[in-house]
Design brief:
mainly alpha, globular, 0% strand
Length: 125
């Protein structure tokens, strides 16, 4: 029974953190003149900054998928890949490391997008 409560607690944390990030984005859309694209870039840069400072892993340990699935996690993955590649491959590794680390996720998104276009018939407006 303890495992069930642990799982429910994990889901509650993930849902709360992910919901809070969405609420922050929604508040930025409603209360400011920022476009959704600019808000996305802000979240991406926040993830990069958290990884660069070294606190993202601690936040990830507590918040789990609530912080890793949104764009903040993508920014942190880009930064982590660049930092690791720069340490092992030098200056040029900083440019390729982020792309190498996130290539799987980007590739999966492209394939899934293509599958969705085969199932549904997209129309431009």
């Amino acid at each position: 029974m303890g495992a069930v409560w642990s799982t429910i607690g994990t889901y509650a944390i993930v849902f709360s953190v992910g919901g809070a990030l969405c609420a922050i984005a929604e508040l930025l859309i409603v209360r400011t003149k920022l476009t959704p694209a600019r808000i996305l870039v802000i979240f991406l840069i926040v993830g990069i900054a958290l990884e660069a400072v070294g606190v993202y892993d601690a936040i990830l340990e507590v918040c789990q998928a609530g912080v890793s699935v949104p764009i903040v996690g993508f920014g942190a993955a880009l930064a982590k890949g660049s930092i690791e590649a720069a340490r092992s491959g030098g200056f040029l590794g900083a440019f390729s490391g982020g792309l190498i680390r996130t290539a799987y996720g980007v590739g999966a998104a492209i394939v899934m997008s293509y599958i969705v276009t085969l199932v549904f018939s997209p129309k431009t407006k």
